[in-house]
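Technical note accompanying the year-one report. For the benefit of new consortium partners, we illustrate the data format agreed upon in the data management plan: each record pairs a sequence with a structure-token string. No post-processing was applied to the example shown here.
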Amino acid sequence: MSSERDDPEQNRSSPPAGDNAPRSRPLPKGDTFYTPSATRLRHEIERRSAAPLVWLHNSPRWLLPAAMALVFVGGLALSGVAGAALLTLLAAFFGWLAYLAWPNLRQGERAMRVVAVSVLLALGLLQSGVF
């Protein structure tokens, strides 16, 4: 006869009934937030980015792609300054993530991030009505 307490796998995968503790994914091992021998500016940006990155890591997996899709579609759907602001906000978010990942990227990956940010900024300029 086995009870729930005897099965460690079952206890690890789901919290006990009535437990309202938030479930979170484990963080990667090591000192992954900081680039070794980085400049003071980069270290400060990485330090200030740690809390938002942990929040993003612990948020539901669908939340970030859904939010980015909504901001992108909203930026394209709204004309004028509102659409330009949304697309620029999305470009800034992509640029922030690209900056943090830059030291670990290969040339092709770096180029794709530059292209993505540039295209979003160009779309923002088009939405603003400047051109």
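Partners are asked to follow this layout when depositing records. DSSP finds five helices and no strands in the chain.
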